[in-house]
Amino acid sequence: MIDNSVYQSTNHKGDIMLTTSIVPVKERFAFLPSITKDFLSFEATLFSFAEMFSENYQGAYWQFISLSNGGKFLYPELEGSVRAINTYSHADVTFSSEAYGLCLTLMALSQRNAIAHRNGDEEENERLYTLYHQVRDYALEHKDAEFILTFID
């Protein structure tokens, strides 16, 4: 079910933090190209990471999320919590599918950023660097922040 509501999170002091909004169906086609010009590889990387890090993932509908700070991320709609194992960071965590998507998006952004840097594409490098930090800012506010940071470390 698609809900086009805007969600606000609050920190422990009750201050409003970053807001999220689900990208409407009619805008989904432009979403991935707004992240990176190599959006097909980016999407393939997300799907590959999703399969690699969790046995819970067997394919899913992915929500596209815009953040009030300009960030963008995706997450698979999965039933219940997700157990994810990252042998690279020795992490074995259980968290929400949104948190899993944050991890996957951050890791894919980081990978694409490294490729842009290696290829000398300064514009793409800057865009991906900015997006990474915008998404990370939201991840730091997320209820599963501790697990997200452990997983991507």
From TrEMBL:
Highest taxon of source: Bacteria
Q: Which InterPro entries match?
A: Antirestrict (IPR004914), Antirestriction_sf (IPR042297)
Spell out the family assignment given in the record's similarity comment. Answer: Belongs to the antirestriction protein family.
Q: What's the name of the protein?
A: Antirestriction protein
Which species is this record about?
Aliivibrio sifiae
